[in-house]
Amino acid sequence: MKKILIVDDSSTIRKLVKYILKKQEYMISEAEDGLDAMEKLGNLEADLIIVDLNMPNMDGIEFVKNLRSNYYHMDTPVIMLTTTKDEDLKRDAMLAGVNLFLNKPVQPNFLIYKVESLLKGE
Ligand SMILES: [Mg+2]
Predict the structure, then answer these.
(1) Alpha-carbon gap, residue 76 to 89, rounded angstroms
(2) Domain ranges of the chain
(3) Per the confidence metrics, is the pTM higher than 0.85?
(4) Which CATH code of 2.30.42.10, 2.60.120.620, 3.40.190.10, 3.40.50.2300 fits the domain covering 3-119?
(5) What is the pLDDT of residues 78-94, one digit of tens each?
(6) Cα of 8 to ligand 1 centre, how many Å?
(7) For ligand 1, a single-atom ion, which residues have Cβ within 5 Å?
(8) Virtual torsion, Cα 58, 63, 65, 70, nearest 10 deg
(9) Residue 80 Cα, ligand 1 centroid: separation in angstroms?
(10) Which residues of the chain have pLDDT under 70?
(11) If you write DSSP's letter for every residue of 55-107 in order, what string do you get?
């Protein structure tokens, strides 16, 4: 079973993403910010990570930079899900190693399709 980690400071968004992905058989874990996610990844595997941009303690871009410097997560697919439409932030996120940048609210079927494609390595 594929493991997905959802990182967002909004519990509502975490619940929503979890709900969207519910029909697929994924094992889903949650973290409330980048720091919490880095700590959890110490003893948790993830095949794909869905991360917010704006979060306290460690934001999404810092988190992805940290993730990419970790041997075990250099290639783990990351989807950034955010309300920002700021092109500079989007570029920073892509440079940090984000695979896909999506704006909230996301079309549920589109998110499912992208998650499946990234998990297949497409
Ligand atoms: Mg946020």
Answers:
(1) 21
(2) 3-119
(3) yes
(4) 3.40.50.2300
(5) 999 999 999 999 999 99
(6) 6
(7) 9, 52, 54-55
(8) 120
(9) 11
(10) none
(11) -SSS-HHHHHHHHHTSGGGSS--EEEEES---HHHHHHHHHHT-SEEEESSPP
